[in-house]
Amino acid sequence: MNVSANTVNFVSAPWIWLQASLYLRPYSTVPLLCIVPWLSYIALGRITTSRRIRATDGLNGPANPSFFFGFYRLINEADDPGVLFDHWALQYGPAFRIPGGFGSNRIVICDPKAAAHFYSKQVSCYVRTKLSQVLIENLFGRGLLWAEGQNHHTQRKALSPAFSNAAIRKLTPVFYDATYKMKVIWDSILEAGSGEAIIDVQLVQFLPSVDAVGAALFGHDFQALDGQENIVADLFDSFASRDASLISRIVFLMGAVFPILQKLPTKKNRIVKHLKDTMQGVAEELLAGNSEGGVDREKGMGEEKSIMGLLGKRMLMRS
């Protein structure tokens, strides 16, 4: 009886203390209850990542300016973050590390051979970070780009008919047409400037890609090169511009440490969701047209003109 009573008292003592503290000192106890789990989470993260940190000890890199933010704040406030990375590559070599938030490290690779090795082994060897997984899921959903391991192999096998040599040859003119349109636009800019002009390639390089991918994947003309407003162009414009809102700054500075913050409704995330819904609508319309055995000539969508159309045709043949 005494042993049982002592056991009950030992187990219930912390709960009694907590109740008394909440009643007598609520303003100091509540913050303590929030801080202790947070510090425990940080300590656990430091312990579990200690081996990975040791693997980066041999890499040089800039000193950590802030334990909480690392270099994220400096990168966010820079007019051109690429200049920072170019400077670090010249100073520390083609592979270096930069401090992230809460004592973490990020490896930066500027060597073409190392980058080629990484992308060739990305699915079978290297695993994406939680942040990359959340960003890809927000934009493309849990598809081929998001999947890893056996899931990726299964989805890739299902999509292989759309990427055969014959299918790729049929889509090649689409990319040539988009490139030629871009050339015409640049020629007109040069002629308007008496043979000289400054073109911000970084801001316009995505335009031919938008039209080419839209036509090849969906058979849909986004008309980005024609100057038409569309959700895809708005999305890339938002990436090029800096969002100075408080919630966006918090997501950028802390998103790498807490990827769940990428789910917050920032301006960019709202545009991404709109783009995702638009793409889904176009794909469903295309598949519905294929299931009815028809082709929408006005929108340029047809089973012989797009990857989605070809996959829809294969699905109908199997069913």
Automatic annotation (TrEMBL):
TM spans (from-to): 24-44
GO annotation, cellular component aspect: membrane
Presence of the UniProt keyword Heme in the record: yes
InterPro entries on file: Cyt_P450 (IPR001128), Cyt_P450_sf (IPR036396), Cytochrome_P450_Monooxygen (IPR050665)
Molecular function in Gene Ontology: heme binding; iron ion binding; monooxygenase activity; oxidoreductase activity, acting on paired donors, with incorporation or reduction of molecular oxygen
Subcellular location: Membrane
Protein name (database record): Cytochrome P450
Originating species: Hypholoma sublateritium (strain FD-334 SS-4)
